[in-house]
Amino acid sequence: MKKLLELNGIYKVFNEGSVDEKIALNQVDLSVNNGDFITVIGSNGAGKSTLLNIIAGKLIPDDGEVWIDGKNMTTMPEYKRARFIGRVFQNPLAGTAPTLTIEENLAIAYGRVHPRKLIKGVSNKRREMFKEQLSMLGLGLENRLGAKVGLLSGGERQALSLLMATFTKPKVLLLDEHTAALDPARAEVILRLTKQFIEEYQLTTIMITHNMQQAIDLGNRLIMMNRGSIIFQAKEKEKSELTIPQLMEEFAKINGTVSDRTLLG
Amino acid sequence: MGPTLEKVNVGARSFLWKGVVMSIAIFGSLESGLIYAIMALGVYLTFRILDFPDLTVDGSFVTGAAVCAILIVNGFHPIIATVVAMLAGFVAGLFTGLLHTKGNINPLLSGILMMIALYSINLRIMGRSNVPLLSEETLFTKLSTQFASFDQTLKSMFSFSPRTWTVILSMLLLVIVLKWLLDSFLKTEVGLALRAVGDNVEMIQSFSANTDGLKMIGLGLSNALVALSGALIAQYNGFSDIGMGIGMIIIGLASVIIGEAVVGNKTIIRATLAVIIGAILYRLIVAFALRFNFFETGDLKLITACIVILSLIVPRFLDRKRERKKKLERRKEVLAKKRGEEIA
Hints:
Chain A is an alpha/beta fold. Chain A has helices spanning 48-56, 78-81, 102-110, 124-135, 154-166, 184-201, 212-217, 236-240, 244-255, 260-264, and strands spanning 3-14, 22-33, 37-42, 63-68, 71-72, 85-88, 172-176, 204-208, 221-226, 229-235. Chain A has ten helices and ten strands. Chain B has a domain at 24-244. Chain B has 14 helices and two strands. Chain B has helices at residues 3-18, 22-49, 57-73, 78-101, 107-126, 139-146, 148-157, 165-185, 189-199, 201-206, 211-237, 248-263, 268-289, 300-343; strands at residues 130-132, 239-241. The termini of chain B are far apart. The relative contact order of chain B is 0.17. The model of chain B has no long low-confidence stretch (mean pLDDT 89). Classes of the chains: A alpha/beta, B mainly alpha.
């Protein structure tokens, strides 16, 4: 199968040479097939978010290469790479522009795939398309196209962020604990929508989560990270048979201790 | 100044002295208010849309005036002079953008640096600190000659008139066209991205927008508007002066804030209208304040500063009060709901 995303020997260190020196990623290799859905777990500071930021281009690795869709994108600036990458952040407020309306936000997301021009952002034709997309969320947002996004609730904003990140069918979808800041009911809705969009648009996805059950239930691959390295991987059948105690055991093998946050997951 | 205009002016004046003296102040405020509104639209673009308090304005306003004046003095057509002045403003804005994005200098400092640099550049452009235009053909003398008979007709129709109707109507038309252009631009794909830059930079980067480029475009456009305003003021007042830009940013802010307080800023169309009305209101407030014998012309900047301070503090104070009230109500609602659930 064709490799869609490849990380070769990624190394990233923060505050090098100072007392706060921290190796965020240490020789990380990862290859992702087209259509993979990978869940990533690991304690705080394991390098999960750094990994996503390296893929997205928010951070440039100190060493190693990032290949996406057969192109070396290691040093390509974030905004150029963003054409191929959809992202949803943990903070529900991070993925949308509050003073713009729902339809204007969608127009911005729609403008991701081609260079922006001096044409109307929200044409009548596009508005119809946006309406159709929004109705898939089942939140009634399709009737509030002209409402400012700042007026929406956190859950609604995150659902909109998710739609904006996915409906242009990016090559890679990066989810950074995107349900963690929501209450359980909202998180459930967002998770259901996530599954729905990933299936519908057949998106290659990498999802960070602190919820072990979620990591086991979702996707076809699982990786566990600790101190900047991938310490455990499970694929397809092996993954489907995983249990939480097994994961904890794996984690304890390396670490000796298990952080509270991971236990709570 | 053409002979026709002089005749027109004399006619208008004698009429006005007989009639309402106040109307001079009103029409004067309206005329200059409309011209300064173009500058205020520029300030709105950076201050509100890009969230970038751009102090370049104090310099680029004079750059516009200087370039326009020097070209007119050297025999260029006023329209060409005005357009070139606009381009000069655009370039000045681009440089501020470069300092901020590529040089990683904070927004305020980039603006101040550019403002200081422009002071010397403006002196170079003019060659001296003041370029008079009184004996030159300007956009306004040309327009007044062109529409002299139209002007007379209008004057005979109204009981009190401005110096010339031509200035006021042509500026009104220009401001409306510029407002329409700006409104339309801010609804294009590029315009939406520009608005998102001031709203949520992280987000717009993740949607593949070159934020550095957008900031530079925004600053360029803003300063082009400011320079256009400067060029028109130079032609309107009949001179360009090195000191004419002092405090311009504050006047721009005052216009934006006053306008928003009066008209509101719910939509872009409304916000730009607010800025224009704010600029005119500011001129009226100043004209009114200067009618008190207590104030001298030199107090103008102090009055402006006070207006801005008040219009910055009062709305925030009112907002906080409103917010508290809203929160209390919401709290009551939640409590009532809970009680309802408990009963059920």
